[in-house]
Amino acid sequence: MIGAGKVRHMRVLPVALVASILVALQPAHPARTHAAPPASSAGPCAERSSDAAAGAEVRTVHGRRPLAFEINDGQVDASVKFLARGRGYTLHLTATEAVLALRPPRPGGAREGSRSRTDMRDRLDSLPATGEPAPATSTVRMRLLGASAAPRLVGLDRLPGKVNYYRGNDPARWRAGIATYARVKYERVYPGIDLVYHASGEHLEYDFVVAPGADPGAIRLAFDGAQGVELGAGGDLVVRAATGELRHKKPFVYQETAAGTREIIAGDYVLDGDRGVRFEVGRYDRTRPLVIDPTLVYSHFLGDVAPGNDSFEFGVGIAVNAEGQAHIAGATDYLAGTDATVAKMSSSGSTVLWVTYLIGSGFDEAWGITLDASGNSYITGYTTSTNFPVTTGAYKTFLSGSVDAFVVKLNSSGAVVYSTYVGYSAGGPGETGYDYGFAIAVDGSGNAYIAGSIDASTVVTVLDFPEGLPYIGTAWNFGKMWVAKLNSTGTALLESVEVGPGASDTLGTGIRVDASHNVYVSGSTGSAAFPTTAGAVQTAFGGGDRDAVVVKVNAEFNALVYSTYLGGATSDFAIGLALDSSGYVYVTGYTNSAGFPSKTPIQPAPPGGLTDKTVFITKLNPTGTALVYSTFLGGSLLDLGSDFAASIGWGIAVDSSGQAHVAGFTQAYDFPRTSGAIQSSLGGDWDGFVVKLDPTGTVLRYSTFIGGHGQDVALGIALDPSGNAYITGATSNRRSDTGALVTADFPTTGPVALPDGSVQSAFGGGTHDAIVAKISDPGVALQFVAFPTVFPALPASGKVGVPYVGNVGIGGGTPPYTVQTIGGTLLPAGLSFGSPVVTGTPEQIQTSLITVQVQDQVGTIIEQNFTIQIQPPTTPGPTGPAAGATAVSPMPAFTWSATTGATAYRIMVATSAGALPTASDSDACPACLVNTVVTSASFTPLPGVLAPGATYFWQVKAIVGTQPSVWSAVASFSTRARLFTFSDDPLVAQTTAVQAAHVLQLREAINNRRVNRSLAAFTFSAPAPAVGAAIRAAHLAELRTALAAAYAQAARTLPIAEPEVQAQVTTIKASHLTELRVAVEALD
Known about the structure:
Elements: E1 16-22, H1 46-49, E2 69-71, E3 80-86, E4 89-94, E5 97-102, H2 120-123, E6 138-144, E7 152-158, E8 162-167, E9 175-178, E10 180-190, E11 193-200, E12 203-210, E13 220-224, E14 228-231, E15 237-241, E16 244-248, E17 252-256, E18 262-265, E19 267-272, E20 276-281, E21 290-293, E22 295-300, E23 313-320, E24 326-332, E25 339-345, E26 352-359, E27 364-371, E28 377-383, E29 404-410, E30 416-422, E31 436-442, E32 448-454, E33 480-486, E34 493-499, E35 507-513, E36 519-525, E37 547-553, E38 560-566, E39 572-579, E40 585-591, E41 614-620, E42 627-633, E43 647-654, E44 660-666, E45 687-693, E46 700-706, E47 712-719, E48 725-731, E49 752-753, E50 759-760, E51 769-776, E52 797-799, E53 804-807, E54 818-821, E55 831-833, E56 837-840, E57 846-855, E58 861-871, E59 878-880, E60 885-888, E61 894-896, E62 904-910, E63 930-934, E64 938-939, E65 951-960, E66 963-964, E67 971-975, H3 996-1012, H4 1033-1049, H5 1070-1082
Parallel strand pairs: 8-26, 52-58, 60-67
Antiparallel strand pairs: 1-51, 2-3, 2-10, 3-4, 4-5, 5-6, 6-13, 7-10, 8-9, 10-11, 11-12, 12-21, 12-22, 13-20, 14-15, 15-16, 16-22, 17-18, 17-21, 19-20, 23-24, 24-25, 25-26, 27-28, 28-29, 29-30, 31-32, 32-33, 33-34, 35-36, 36-37, 37-38, 39-40, 40-41, 41-42, 43-44, 44-45, 45-46, 47-48, 48-51, ...
Helix pairs in contact: 3-4, 3-5, 4-5
């Protein structure tokens, strides 16, 4: 942290927060909005927001949830003309009264299944096995005594958004396209007096507008259903009910002046009988209209600030159309139960165009969403409701167990096209299966593909599949992974496959489909019997309680194209999955396994090691046989302390350039982030994050926190055609560890018009609000402008084994300086930071993003991000035999250029170039004649390894420590033809008689080679043995001498192993002559 009086450095932010909108997925709505507070009142988030100085303004606007009024189109009783929903109550406006249904607080603040626990992880943890009825309500009716029995009700200020209700499985009760209004007016309730209901933020107000000459004394209110009516402190009217109290604030009475200002008139409530109330108004100008404006506030007896005491909303899935309009799937308990919701945002992010509720009697939650080219949205999730809204002719119209998956298709206006349960059943309703839908995809024909988990007695097809989602408790009853294909009308299940051996605690959490209708699924499994395919990245279970899994199922759903584990010895979950047009698969999740497979990681391991959940981001090749990259991203510090902090990767998307975008959430103060981050420091308990990797997975293009002081999670992520990232998730005003209330300050860019066009400007109350954010793609390399100090760039790359020297340099400011790396960033292995010099010899191939901080004597601080890419060792270059050389000796001296720091070299020689490996980490070559490791930059094969008159191909690589270079270019050469051919039979020890002919041939062959090497023929002094004569030691000695000279001329050592022959002592053996023959032929 920067102390008081310290000057923060300036930055240029290429990553701009275009929109970050706090929004509940429900029609909650104001007619009047409040301006954002001045910058000086930004409170605890002011310093954090200043990080976004240049590229985007991140403003925190404080406010409460607004109200709006829906016209009754049959969603409630016909006597109701308009309705509005507030925190803790619902308002029904009939012709003669206002009916307030007041919801009580939940006992202890947590109804099971409402997910309103203080810990965000718990919200994603415990699901109910069955639905629960809404809490009991109390009702208070406000009537106007002596008023007109049939006033005219009209909606005023029509709002642009629509609301869709699909309640239960009776289509007659479904309502779509319901209009909403900012105000509702009762005309002439008394002579010359109108009554207007409207909102102030989330609070209900009602105005009596008294025309000139009309009598405000005619207004009399009665409260039926109240337990008591009394005047409170400050002139408020307190109406007590069984579940809480309605507090009517002291009436604000005024008249408009000709100048447009308000002239305040004295006014009070006066009790009139047991439940009656009237107004007492001071002197006013009866020639002008008079307005009496009370404000209604509903308070629970237990206090609505108690943890877990109110509603929640959250978004899980998100999809974006070509116009940049985000569609969000999630859930809310705003309507008293837990209901699935889907909302559509405008492309500017300033308006929620519509919201659709999918309402059953139990627990209904949407998780996955996708769009087709026509703008239809497809949603999956799960329900415990026996009356979930399904359409006539749907594939499955009944709940067949405790939990069923569902699939819903909405048109571009949010109206249901089809809706169906999806789950297995042997006998129908009343069974006890648990079938979940977590992810959904759609093909070009409109067929929907669903991934989840299934636990049923009926098996359609069995392959055996995976599991995984963070913080899922045992109540979920996961069995096997399940993948299904639904036809375009939602009337038939075209394909379905279960994967996972029995109750293997296995599920699918991400799904994509390619143009050929192959299906890709991510998930995880607790089973070591999960089926994998030959050649897959990892074919064996890594151990621990579960491994991540990635599978590809063919279009016919009858075979695995590939299937692989991704895991180590502890716990590994794959959650999100993305697919590019070339068939590369991208997955994210979390791991705490040291053996999790990695390749060219940006972060080889998080600071402090893999002691808690750490994000992984992995890219697989199209065949599932190799990693393109696999990296960790995480931190170790929890709120600047020493506790290990979790980091979870949840959603992933890939752009047209192959760059992966990942959303998740972290507790780690030192989570990696880039210099252009929208938010460079952890805001509170949990913060969301968004990161982007380049196509090679070795460069972190951007990484930013996004959150306030409470619990903030980013879950779903989607991209528009321009590469802008859209995220959804949830925010809270409570800490997960203590449940303590904190400032609800998730960063926003301003108010958003809710489904009906009303405005929400900040956290809406309850335990959690859904969030939607759009982050623009910078499209250029990150930049950094430092003031007042200046950094020259560190060398951007180095090589394993080659000494690296970089000087961050310091200029400007006031010396002396303190220079350090911060945020848990690590230099590449082998390098050390000497303030300000980075030196050392890199030890491994890796890319590191480091943050260097300089502080001068007066406290000025500057930070700079540097990327250092350590490349493989220098590749050696073959020098001899030269490429294309001919007439080379069959025993050549291989030579190559030396590599700095090399501790060894591996050379391979084969008879074809195709036999040589190309991957630098491959040391196998079954067809090679030479595959050996040497410690110097030369090698000579043994005699007889290479033959005369043949063509050979060879390559070499350097090894520095354990890090290999890439293989050199393949060089070829041809050996010269055999210069002399021995005509007699081969010599075989112990069986071949040594004859004079053998010696004579050796003499001829040796001189043949001496002459070929420009040496004089050797004069043998020992007489040539006659045929049948004995062979003497002198004959062999002279042969050795003659041959040794030829070897010396070739700068080679004579390869003779037999002892020197001695006259009268040495027995002449066939092996003596065999060695001479081999040595002679080696000179070819």
